[in-house]
Every structure is written in structure tokens, then in C-alpha cells.
Amino acid sequence: MRPARLQRSCLIVSAALLLVACAAPQRASQPGASAPAGGTTTSPAPAGNGAASGTIKIFSSFPMTGSALGQTQTMVNAIRMAVDERGGKVGDFTIVYEPLDDATPAKGSWDEGKEAENANRAVNDPDVMVYIGTYNSGAAKISIPITNRAHLFQISPANTSPGLTKPGKGEPGEPEIYYPTGVRNYARVVPADDLQGAVAARFAKERLNVQRAYVLDDAESYGRPLATVFYNEARRRGIQVSPANGPESIDRQATDYRSLALRIRQTNPDLVYFGGITQNNAGKLWQDLRATLGPDVKLMGPDGIFEQAFLDAAGDAGVGTYVTFGGVPVSRYTGKAAEWLQRYRQRFNSEPEAYAIYAYEAANVALDAIQRAGRKDRNAIREAGMNTKDYDGVLGRWSFDQNGDTTLTTMSVSQFKGPRIEQTEFITQLSAE
């Protein structure tokens, strides 16, 4: 199964690169070349005119169709806040923000073709200087090679797959395959899953006293590596993990998981861990696990299910679930984060979901990069963004390291105590060690 997944991943990235490289054969060496959806050839957008005034566009790309909308709408709101709080200006530049949807009605979640379309639209617009995205790590694997060839600064508020940035932490060939120019243009303001999976295993052993665990994943580039980290770290800590050959990938299209739940029950687990996202049928999985395993077996998942959409899908089965997250839940915000939360509530008369504050931080980092670059030039803005150091934001004081990863590494564990995300109860903060 792993070679097949890697083959598909490489084919996807190769297709994205081919789309960029072959769109304008007469100028194949120029960054950003791409074919539009209609199939005609266009010249790539210039990387900026170096002007010190004019219009600069920022695009975001998140799934705005389907159940992720509850989460991603609060992220879009937060980006608008960041732009509006500066009066829509950075120096003499007018900032125009446009959110793009990388989901389709047919899938109800992010789509490879749609994400490639969004990234190509960005690189072919000469006014676009920053691409905020993606929400899903699999989508980032599509867009990063496209934005990289155009020297466009890409910053994610939510991607956590280690292989996007960290050598030796993902599949063979990662992360170099995503950076065809050899120069990094992608960064993220959230800790990666090599930390999250390890923290989940540590919590399971030290706080829940788990002796036996069954590990599942959704077979995607976010969920599978995360489940693998949990599996290996749990085994290292002395937990008996099943299945014997590694995490089991679920059928995301299944109408029920009762036969899977019955097989899991035969292993007599204390805990079932799922590496995956809500949109890959996590709600139905939880319902069948809880109905078959009973109330005493603990269920645990990552930030991919840390949203109201999961609780809506899982119903009563979701209550009691343990979740890990690269930060703290909204209810635990202090200092600048608490001040931001108050402003958000006043403006939108609603509660932000977990990743909204990360979208706000990402947007402000992008605006700061534009200001420090001082000119409308993609490469200058990319360089400024990637060299963000000692940034004092709503998440605290942090920097990007040489890979574009945040120096913030503390994770939290919480528990859903009711059917509303506001009923999440913070338990503890942990490091991976």
C-alpha cells in the first residue's frame, strides 16, 4: 500500500509540474508558466514590477464547499480582519484579498484539479504576491510546486504533514520534490505532525495508561503519516499496537464500519487512534466504533477532526473524544490571542474555530513580508516572508526555521465534552519528549 500511495503522490506532483512547465513551450524556462483551464497557452505573469505603490493581491485557497466550511469560513474572516485592521494598506500599496475555494460540490472536500487551478490562477495574475494555503496537506502537495516555480510566497495556517518541509520525515523524495527551483517558498505557522503524533502517543501512555491501541488512518497524505508516527511512538513507549504491520487504512466511501469495528474489538484495545480528517467519513466511523466497542474504549484523533463539523457528523459518538492540536483551544487564549478573540467576536458575532487564529497570524506575516520587502516583487516578498524571525504575534514570539517551520512546538490535548465545539475541555500541554 505504501508504494502505491507514493506512486500516486509522485504522479500528482509530476502532473502539477507538467502543467506549469508545458503551458508556454516557447518560454518554458520562465517561472509561473501554466495552461489555463480552457487549454489555450498563455504567457506567465511577471514576478512583479518592483514598484513601491499600486495594488497587491493576496489569494487564499481553502475548501469552502462541504463540511469544512464551518472551519474555513472563520479562517477567511480572520484574514479579512488582518487586512482590514491595516486599513487595506501596506505602505503605499493597496491590499486586495480574495478567497478561493479548492473544493468541489461533487467531492464535498478539496480536489486536486481545483487546487491546481487556484495555484495557476495565482501565478498568472501579476498582482498576486502571496498565496495563503492550503488547509489540507494533500492540496499543498499540488500547489507548492506551481507557486515555487513562480517564486510566489506560500504560507499555510493549517498544513501539518512533515514531508512538506522536513527532510527525512516523510516519503522518499520529500520535501525536495515540491521545490523544483531548489529555493524554498513555502512556510507554515503550525507545528508538523511528527510532533503531534508523538504527543498523542505520550498522552495515551502517560495520562490514559493505555496498554493496547488500534491505529487507523484515512489513507491520505495528512492522515497516514500522522497515524504512522503515533503507531511507532506508541510502540516505542511500550503500548501494544495493532494491526501488526502498521496502521490500517479505512475505506473513505464505506457506508458502515461495523465489520471493521468487530475486528478491532477482537484485539481488546484500550484506545482506537484515527489519523485523518472529518471529511473522510470520520463521523460514521466514530458512530460504528462507539456502538460496537462500547463506552469504555477511548477514541482519539488529531486536529483534522478538531471542528464542529466532526461533532455534527459523529453525534453522541463524538462526545468524549480526545483530540490533539498544535496550540491551545479557543477557551484557553490569553494575552494577544485573547484580545484578538474579543475583536473577532465583536465583528462577526460568532466563535472562531481552531484554525482561525492561525489564518490571522499567517495573513499578518504575509503583510509584514510585503512591508519589509518594500516593493512589488514576488522574490523579494518570498525572501522576506521566509526570513521571518522573532515575530511577535497572537501566537507568541516565534521564527521560521531553515525549512519554513515554526519554532513553536508545544501541543495540547483536549476532550470533547459535548456536541458543541465550545464545550471542548482543555486537558494539558505537552512536548513530544
List keywords for this structure.
alpha/beta; Rossmann fold; 2 domains; eight-stranded mixed sheet; 18% strand
Descriptive overview:
A hairpin with a 2-residue loop joins β13 (391-393) and β14. This protein has helices spanning 2-22, 69-84, 112-123, 137-149, 193-206, 223-236, 258-266, 282-293, 308-314, 335-348, 356-373, 378-386, and strands at residues 53-62, 89-90, 92-101, 128-132, 153-156, 186-188, 212-217, 240-242, 248-249, 271-275, 298-301, 322-325, 391-393, 396-398, 411-416, 424-430. The chain is built from 12 helices and 16 strands. By secondary structure, the protein is α/β, with parallel strands linked by helices. Strands 7, 8, 9, 10, 11, 12, 15 and 16 form an 8-stranded mixed beta sheet that branches. The protein is globular and about 65 Å long. The longest helix has 21 residues, at 2-22. It folds into 2 domains: 16-191 and 352-398, Response regulator (Rossmann fold, 3-Layer(aba) Sandwich), CATH 3.40.50.2300; 193-325 and 411-430, Rossmann fold (3-Layer(aba) Sandwich).
Blueprint (SSEs and pairs):
Layout: H1 2-22, E1 53-62, H2 69-84, E2 89-90, E3 92-101, H3 112-123, E4 128-132, H4 137-149, E5 153-156, E6 186-188, H5 193-206, E7 212-217, H6 223-236, E8 240-242, E9 248-249, H7 258-266, E10 271-275, H8 282-293, E11 298-301, H9 308-314, E12 322-325, H10 335-348, H11 356-373, H12 378-386, E13 391-393, E14 396-398, E15 411-416, E16 424-430
Helix pairs in contact: 1-4, 2-11, 3-4, 5-6, 7-8, 8-9, 11-12
